[in-house]
TrEMBL record:
Coarse class of the protein's main subcellular location: membrane
Compartment list: Cell membrane
Keyword Transferase on entry: no
Sequence intervals crossing the membrane: 37-61, 96-115, 145-171, 183-206, 218-240, 252-275
Keywords, comma-separated and alphabetical: Cell membrane, Membrane, Transmembrane, Transmembrane helix
Domain of life assignment: Bacteria
Organism: Streptomyces viridiviolaceus
InterPro entries documented for this protein: Virul_fac_BrkB
Protein name, per record: YihY/virulence factor BrkB family protein
Lineage: Bacteria, Bacillati, Actinomycetota, Actinomycetes, Kitasatosporales
Pfam family of the protein (one): Virul_fac_BrkB
Membrane topology listed for this record: Multi-pass membrane protein
Length: 301
């Protein structure tokens, strides 16, 4: 697209754009065929999502009160728009034991597949070869990463819940619940959710592909991903509530919208990975390594 730089008016702006880190990250994505990578991540994520939600809902349904179950459904509606309406909490309470065993087995199988597929896609963005390991140890490593990710998600959800409750309590104590207080609470809830996403992305962008990007690039990429993920949730939540259930796809409207949401999220994660993998312009000129990262880039740039 160098021809854009030669245009009389647009040229200088195009040249500035193409010199940015964001554009060079996109060039890396285009080089590694990121739409195919996102499609692979979307499929495995979609398959693994339902056992995960079913297992979490079944465990919670058998241990929580009715009021807490309602809060759980609201939380699911925030994190995965359109899905909570499809869960029959009463049925999960009655069959919690069986559902937990079946969903747990499915989650272990599909979850390890998700870890392997996501790791492969992220390493492809880094232009690194697949790891050559013992198959048994490889599966054990995938299971460990899956458990670690689950623990990280639980911790961040706990932090998000406690922080949101604390902000709400402070606003009520100050007596500014209406108008400005409501807007402040909404902004605080968005910030807390973005912080939780940020912590999870730090895990996903480093431990999953097995790389050590520079701290600056990692922090910026995780911030971009966290804010972008929350904006995607707002966008897709509104779409699912207002359009998906009334679209021409009929009963398939929600699953199709969910697939779109997962695909957009996968592309966002891939862009964040590309941001961490792309060296600064100065470093590329100094190393003379072109676009492909060497071992030093993969281990911290």
């Amino acid at each position: 697209m160098d021809w854009l730089k030669k245009l009389p008016v647009v040229g200088p702006w195009a040249a500035r754009l193409m010199a940015t880190h964001a554009w060079r990250s996109y060039e890396r994505l285009d080089r590694v065929k990121w739409t195919r990578l996102a499609a692979a991540m979307t499929f495995t994520s979609f398959v693994a999502l339902f056992p995960l939600l079913t297992l979490a809902a079944a465990i919670a349904a058998s241990t929580l009160s009715t009021e807490q179950q309602d809060k759980l459904q609201d939380k699911l509606a925030e994190q995965v728009p359109g899905i909570s309406d499809q869960l029959n909490i009463d049925s999960l309470v009655q069959n919690a034991g069986t559902v937990s065993v079946v969903a747990g087995a499915l989650l272990l199988f599909t979850g390890m597949g998700w870890v392997e597929a996501t790791r492969g896609c992220l390493r492809a963005v880094w232009e690194l070869p697949d790891e050559d390991e013992n198959p048994v140890l490889h599966r054990a490593k995938d299971a460990g990463i899956l458990v670690g990710l689950g623990g990280a998600l639980l911790v961040t959800i706990g932090i998000s819940t406690v922080a949101s409750a604390l902000v709400g309590w402070i606003i009520r104590q100050l007596g500014i619940e209406g108008g400005f207080g409501g807007a402040l609470l909404y902004i605080a809830a968005f910030a807390v959710a973005a912080l939780a996403d940020f912590l999870v992305l730090l895990y996903v962008l480093t431990l999953l592909p097995g790389v050590e990007p520079t701290r600056r690039r990692l922090v910026v990429a995780a911030l971009i991903g966290a804010v972008g993920f929350e904006l995607l949730k707002l966008l897709l939540s509104g779409y699912m509530q207002g359009v998906a259930t009334k679209s021409m796809y009929g009963t398939f409207g929600v699953p199709i919208a969910l697939l779109l949401w997962i695909n957009f999220t996968s592309k966002l994660v891939l862009f964040c990975a590309a941001w961490t993998a792309t060296q600064s312009k100065e470093a590329e000129l100094t190393d003379g390594a072109g676009d492909a990262p060497g071992p030093a880039a993969a281990n911290g740039g």
